[in-house]
Design goal:
- There is one protein chain.
- With about 325 residues, the protein is an alpha/beta fold.
- α2 links the parallel β1 and β2.
- The chain is built from eleven helices and nine strands.
- The radius of gyration is 20 Å and the shape is globular.
- Bound molecules: N-carbamoyl-L-aspartate.
- The site of N-carbamoyl-L-aspartate has 11 residues, from α2 and α6.
- N-carbamoyl-L-aspartate binds next to α2 and α6.
């Protein structure tokens, strides 16, 4: 096993072998999760604290379930967005946490970089559950596992990421992961929702959905992240759906066996047609949720192994 990281803060620091190690172990956990008795012992005796400074349904539930299935004591801390406006407060939070001796800390935060900062101050493994527009590594990993299982490989695929790229940490983490695994990524969306200098990432950029979807293997749709927009980025939701909403007519430009993905939460009729989202022959949206639990179990298992090894080493040195 090559995975030697202390934290999972983003896809950026991971090597392709790290990604493969997480996905291989996650495959085992998918099998465990499909059994009647779903208990593993990889996190036995460890304490996992989930700190979500931003709303979340599936990510938080997924991390909670993942920890519980592997035997951790899991606690969800209710965080008020208003209490973390200042950097100092975050450091205070870290001090409080250290006193509680957690082993795994799962953090979602509205500010890019906040999770990295916290990781420098706490004495446990930190997992980034989404920080601002920066990264959302477990989402990209669960997307990768979903693609690998549906397509039988995770390289040399044409993947289109569509919609609100500018505000999306999901797009950023996916872009990094898919690039590291040698896939071709196309970004499709209105120029107002495309980050400046995006072409430097080595991607193809389209503002025409039909042109961009031509012959792709994977269509990844994104939510319009209105909470991160401070002005009029689109003329109207109706107009947006007309040009960028995924419906049967636009999907026909992709390969016949192309899969449709969405990280959730979905706005039906805004970025995606409800019928496409529910079409079990095309949509893997429910698989993504299933893979999410398994990937988080794998990531926490690998981090816990490294944490235990480091502590044993430190203990032996005393
Ligand atoms: C994403 C997120 O929070 O970044 N959702 C998720 O984790 N399932 C995407 C989104 O909110 O649109």
């Amino acid at each position: 096993m090559t995975f030697s990281h202390s934290h999972l803060l983003g896809i950026e620091p991971l090597a392709p072998a790290d990604i493969t190690a997480i996905l291989d172990l996650a495959d085992d956990y998918v099998a465990l999760n499909r059994r009647d008795v779903k208990h593993g012992d990889a996190l036995d005796g460890l304490t996992q604290i989930n700190m979500f400074f931003e709303n979340s349904t599936r990510t938080q539930a997924s991390f909670e379930l993942a920890g519980k299935r592997l035997g951790a004591d899991v606690m969800n801390m209710a965080m008020q967005a208003s209490s973390i406006k200042k950097g100092e407060t975050l450091i205070d939070t870290a001090m409080t946490l250290n006193a509680m001796h957690p082993d795994l800390l799962v953090v979602r935060h509205p500010h890019s970089g906040a999770v990295d900062l916290l990781a420098q101050k706490v004495r446990c493994a930190v997992l980034n559950a989404g920080d601002g527009r920066h990264e959302h590594p477990t989402q990209a990993l669960l997307d990768a596992l979903t693609i690998r299982r549906a397509k039988g490989r995770l390289h040399r695929l044409n993947v289109a990421i569509c919609g609100d790229i500018a505000h999306s940490r999901v797009a950023r983490s996916n872009l990094l992961l898919l690039g590291k695994m040698e896939n071709r990524v196309r970004l499709i969306g209105p120029p107002t929702l495309m980050p400046a200098q995006i072409r430097e990432f080595g991607v193809e950029v389209y503002d025409d959905m039909r042109e961009g979807l031509k012959d792709v293997d994977v269509v990844m749709m994104l939510r319009l992240q209105k909470e991160r927009m401070d002005g009029g980025f689109i003329p109207s939701e109706r107009e947006y759906y007309h040009r960028y909403g995924l419906d049967g007519e636009k999907l026909a430009y992709a390969r016949e066996d192309a899969i449709v993905m969405h990280p959730g939460p979905m706005n039906r009729g805004v970025e995606i047609d409800g019928e496409i989202a529910d079409d079990i022959n095309r949509s893997v949206i429910q698989d993504q949720v299933e893979m999410g639990v398994a990937v988080r179990m794998a990531a926490m298992d690998l981090l816990a192994r490294n944490l235990r090894a480091r502590r044993a080493e430190a203990g032996a040195a005393i």
